[in-house]
Amino acid sequence: MEIVQRAVSGFALDLGPIKEPLGFIRVLEWVFTIFAFATAGGYSGSTHFTVKCHEKPMEVKPEFWYPFRLADRSYLMPTCNSTEVEVTYLQGDFRSSAEFFVSVGVFAFLYCTLTLVLYLGYQHVYRQTSRGPLADLVVTGVFAFLWLVSSSAWGKGLTDIKFATNPDHLMGSLKDEYTVEAYASMGRLNASVIFGFLNLILWAGNCWFIYKETHFHKDPNAPAPMQEGDLPGP
């Protein structure tokens, strides 16, 4: 309870940092991070085609959703050499790249929230020593690297998902036996990859402004220290 009281008593709201690149870019990171993991994590879609190998055409509509473990998604497929239908499964498991991307987004969102509270309410604590900006620089650099890796992996995974759910792939050599009614809408997933690489640019670029807050960066306008024996002129 005493720790909470100290934290509340030390809070001093100051919106000034938002007007500076350090705080403004962090707000942009917070927004684009939400877009990144929300567009990927909440996705569900389906592809729709009609099989015409019998007198009565049959509609086939495989459905899939996050985390894209397609091998668990079943659908009914008619067999052209008989009147029966069989349970068929989509192929592929892209859970690892999808969950990795979303996890990076969620943790980045939490870190943005934490640092924004620190910037706006505890700026005096943040700048009190060099350890705050230095730790911020290291974590921001790590997240920039994670955005690079996760966005690249998720982009490759998305390409494989498009192939695995394409009716041309699902029907194989029976291309004359079906008609595509609707391809799966991938615009939302394409946007998630774009948001991922936008986050990479934001987080990598923000490293420079955080670096300027550390003791490694010297202000070029700061007066040079006087050497022993130097006396000011009259």
Automatic annotation (TrEMBL):
Is Glycoprotein included in the keywords of this UniProt record? yes
Keywords recorded for this protein, A-Z: Glycoprotein, Membrane, Transmembrane, Transmembrane helix
Q: What's its membrane topology? A: Multi-pass membrane protein
For this protein, the parts annotated as crossing the membrane are 100-122, 134-154, 191-211
Q: Which InterPro entries match?
A: Marvel (IPR008253), Synaptophysin/porin (IPR001285)
Gene Ontology cellular-component terms for this entry are: synaptic vesicle membrane
Annotated compartments? Membrane
In terms of domain of life, where is this protein from?
Eukaryota
> Which coarse location class describes where this protein primarily resides?
membrane
- Give all residue intervals belonging to the MARVEL domain: 17-215
Q: Which family does it belong to?
A: Belongs to the synaptophysin/synaptobrevin family.
Any idea what this protein is called? Answer: MARVEL domain-containing protein
**From which organism does this entry originate?**
Gadus morhua
Lineage of producing organism = Eukaryota, Metazoa, Chordata, Craniata, Vertebrata
